[in-house]
Amino acid sequence: MHELSVATSIVKIVQQEVNKIKGKTVLELYLEIGKLSGVEMDSFYFVWPQCINGNVLAQTKLFVEEPIGRARCAECETEFHIEKTFDSCPNCNSPFKEIISGKELKIKKIIIK
Ligand SMILES: [Zn+2]
Known about the structure:
Mean pLDDT: 96
CATH topology: hypothetical protein PF0899 fold
Largest sheet: 3 strands, mixed
Number of strands: 6
Oligomer: single chain
CATH class: Alpha Beta
Number of helices: 2
Bound molecules: zinc ion
Structural class: alpha+beta
């Protein structure tokens, strides 16, 4: 499952950060997981408790921002909302566009004690 490997690698990265500064536990974790990142949030929240069980993240308050998909058309420069990466421009129907937001998959902030 994709979400399990995403959650596992987040835990691994956070653990490394905690080790670096010899912290004990993580109080808060801020993630950014865009609507176009391919991560299904229901599945993510389902696997998350298994991934943090017994490690530095066990007591962590998790905050997840989910930026919506935004794109700019390469033909007419219209900015529009997209649900899927292959959505076309609503103005001229062109499939060519630059994705401005929604593909984020990153750790924004870790608060370590
Ligand atoms: Zn267009």
